[in-house]
Structure formats: C-alpha cells, structure tokens
Amino acid sequence: QSVLLTLPVAPDAGAMRGPATLTPLDAPSLGSTLLPLLTAALVPHVAAPTLDANQATLLLEWIGGAPTVGWVAHVDGEPAGFVALQPDLAPLMHRFNGGRRLPMRWLLALAKRRPVRRGRLLFGAVGAPWRRQGIGRQLMAQALHSAASAGWCELICGPFVDPSPAVRCLQQMGASAEQRYTL
C-alpha cells in the first residue's frame, strides 16, 4: 500500500534551527556525492538494492523538466540528509493532456510560466547514522519555508509506502492522506 499526502503550508512558515547545517541542493550532486542518500530515499520503491550513477543520471534528467530546489543537511562536514522540491505540474499536465498534440504543448508551455499553487516533495532522506536526531524535521521546516516563499498553499508528498517512518513523520507535521494506492 502507498499513500499520497497533502501537507498544508502556513504563510508564515519559518526555517528551524537544528543539529545540521543546511546548504542549497545542487541537483547533479544527487547522482554523485549524494548517491547513497538518493538510494536511501528510493529504497521502499525500487526493486534493486542500490542505485548506480547511470540510473541516477537518468532519473535526474527525467525530473529536470521543472526547476528543482532543495537542501542538504551536513553534520560534521558530511552529508546527512537532503530534501528536493518542485512545483506540482500534475494538474497542468492533466489539463493539457500531457502536451501530446502540438497546440496543447504550446498551451502547456505558456501555462508553466504562471505561478502554481502547490509544490511537490520529490525526494527526502536522512542517512541511517543520523536518523531520530531532528534532521528530517529541520529539512522539512526548511522545505515548508521555501514553499511559503514560493506562494504555495500545500506540498504534495509521495507516494510513500504506508506505514513507514516518512508517513508517520509527515502526519505528525499535519499531512493528511489525499489518495491511497494498492499494488
């Protein structure tokens, strides 16, 4: 079972202090220095136990169609976790039939320039040695702060395997189930 969650964004969401130092995410680093953390983020969803650099590169190219923002948490100079967000373009893709026909592709390109009201939490993970120390909450607080700055009303998170620590953490932060999937 998987669940897609909706997390409301408070207009005054502020960043939170925590045990880690946060730096902006450089998306290409997900395929190199942050590869173990990207693999940790995908563990419940990927049949292969590890993700190689070529698979990570393909994944990053696939999500590269929209601007990606995020943060990396560092503890003692080592990357301990990360979070990555994008504007949620799913409603636009649905409305314009994915841009399959040329006129719809043009309309979709124009519509993408307008501000969206929702964001999407693409990936997030905290490495095993640093879990249960508040780093995940610190990263999510920063993500909510960025979402508020972008004018988003909510973050779509997932789908995540239910039950999982990620689902419990997001529900404690106020997320609610939007859709459930059974495979």
Describe this structure in words.
- The chain is α+β, with helices and mostly antiparallel strands and 183 residues long.
- 32% of the residues lie in helices and 28% in strands.
- The protein is built from six helices and seven strands; from the N terminus they run ββααββααβαβαβ.
- It has helices at residues 35-42, 53-63, 90-95, 102-111, 135-149, 165-172; strands at residues 2-8, 21-24, 69-75, 78-87, 118-126, 154-161, 176-181.
- Strands 2-3-4-5-6-1-7 form a seven-stranded mixed β-sheet, sandwiched between helices.
- It is globular and about 50 Å long.
- The termini are close together.
- The mean pLDDT is 78.
Strand order of the largest sheet: 2-3-4-5-6-1-7
Structural class: alpha+beta
Whole-number average pLDDT?
78
Q: Note the total helix count.
A: 6
Shape, per Cα inertia axes? globular
Low-pLDDT stretches: none
